[in-house]
Design brief:
By secondary structure, this protein is an alpha/beta fold. 37% of the residues lie in helices and 14% in strands. It has two domains: 147 residues, Glycogen Phosphorylase B (Rossmann fold, 3-Layer(aba) Sandwich); 179 residues, Rossmann fold (3-Layer(aba) Sandwich), CATH 3.40.50.2000. α1 runs parallel beside α5, α1 runs parallel beside α9 and α6 crosses α7.
Length: 343
């Protein structure tokens, strides 16, 4: 999800350089709502490669794939750009109709993706994923952009509204992540929740999977001012996040959505490197662990000398997070007053 959010500013750059440009976007079906938020996106193609792979033995599965390919190939494009640099994204570009642009062999995330691309661009690795995508599209379409201006191009009226009644002012805890190594311990979340509640804020807990729902319930406990949301779409969650006083989150998709919406946020990093994939936006505070094996990019913690898991988060204590959050809320007091008025 984070990669999808990080793609949005590249489209805004291109539209600034050429106001008549329009985009269609092929994206994993799980995240298909996000591209539709951008003002210059017309059609979103929902891609389900993993699901299709398991259904090809059925006539219904084959029919779905055939219908997708027909819809995708109905239009001749001026340019088809693979902004991910993975083999599966390059494969979708290959079956589209139009000149294909993407990363060269030294720049692609997965070697071999460049073999399906006709116009290959050098975009050195080691930069933030957002910058790499902005650079690639700028090279593919021959324009320049201002790196200091980040416009996600989101039109919030495109969100699906939710009718939930949530007490304001509230802070959203974005704890949902599929990587064990990125999970801040539940005991730390509960301790932070006590501090946030004592300061007069409600806490809102979204989730995606059943494991994340149980974690939400564990964090919320039996406190009447802690709200575990029902199962919601990404757009519904975004509509709730945009009204928050602030968020506290991990390196997860909803944290990047909060940043894109300009919601003040404190985001925690251990196994991943904020320099490569951190939140980008107004009023964003990043707390990165300084542990010896930090930025390992492993999905599970393999540090054996500590029983604390993930080991890199042991020193990222709730008190430190609360101090940063309290400072951020004070800095953005105008937004806090606005949220109060909407209550």
């Amino acid at each position: 999800m984070g990669d999808v959010v990080h793609t949005l500013p590249a489209l805004s750059d291109a539209a600034s350089a050429n106001p008549s440009i329009r985009f269609d976007w092929a994206v994993d079906e799980s995240f298909a709502q996000i591209p539709a938020w951008h003002r210059n996106v017309e059609t979103v193609f929902s891609v389900a490669l993993r699901r299709w792979q398991g259904n090809l033995s059925s006539s219904a599965g084959r029919a779905e794939v055939k219908a997708f390919l027909k819809t995708l190939r109905d239009k001749q494009y001026d340019l088809v750009v693979d902004l991910q640099g993975e083999f599966k994204s390059a494969l979708i570009a290959r079956v589209s109709r139009g000149t294909r642009a993407g990363y060269d062999g030294a720049s692609a995330r997965e070697w071999g993706a460049q073999l399906l691309i006709t116009r290959r661009c050098a975009v050195p690795k080691g930069a933030h994923s957002m910058k790499r995508m902005r650079d690639l599209l700028a090279k593919a379409l021959s324009y320049s952009y201002d790196n200091d201006v980040v416009d996600y191009g989101i039109e919030t009226h495109r969100f699906k509204p939710t009718l939930l009644e949530i007490a304001r002012p509230y802070i959203v805890f974005l704890h949902s992540t599929s990587w064990e190594a990125k999970n801040w311990p539940e005991s730390y979340w509960r301790e932070l929740a006590d501090k946030v509640t004592a300061a007069g804020f409600a806490i809102v807990l979204p989730w995606g999977s059943e494991v994340e729902r149980r974690r939400s319930l564990n964090i919320a406990g039996d406190h009447s001012n802690h709200f575990v949301l029902p199962k919601l779409s990404i757009s519904e969650k975004a509509s709730i996040i945009k009204m928050a006083v602030a968020t506290v989150g991990l390196d997860t998709g909803l944290s990047h959505i909060a940043a894109a919406l300009g919601v003040p946020s404190v985001t925690l990093y251990g196994a991943t490197d904020p320099a490569l994939c951190g939140t980008i936006g107004k009023d964003q505070v990043q707390i990165a662990s300084e542990f010896e094996c930090v930025k390992c990019h492993e999905t599970t913690c393999s540090f054996k000398a500590s029983a604390f898991k993930p080991a890199c988060f042991e020193m990222v204590e709730p008190g430190r997070v609360w101090r940063e959050l309290e400072r951020l809320i004070g800095k953005t007091s105008a937004r806090r007053r606005e949220v109060y008025q909407l209550a």
